[in-house]
Amino acid sequence: MFGLSELAVILIVVVVVLGIKKLPELTRSAGKAARIFKSEAKALKEQDAPGAGQVVEGRVVGRQDESAPRV
Known about the structure:
- By secondary structure, the protein is mainly α.
- It has helices at residues 4-18, 23-48.
- It has a domain at 20-45.
- Helix content is 58%, strand content 0%.
């Protein structure tokens, strides 16, 4: 696969091809994308948690005996 020196050469080539002027714009866009991804992941996590922040009243139903074989 790739070693550290090969990855460094590829990174240098990418910087030269994209140009120094576009590099700040590229990193800014990557930062925005990371923030959006993080907020969406957090929203999805909150959405998937059933009853998160809600109180649900109910009653306890008899537990199944742990030593009894399950069918």
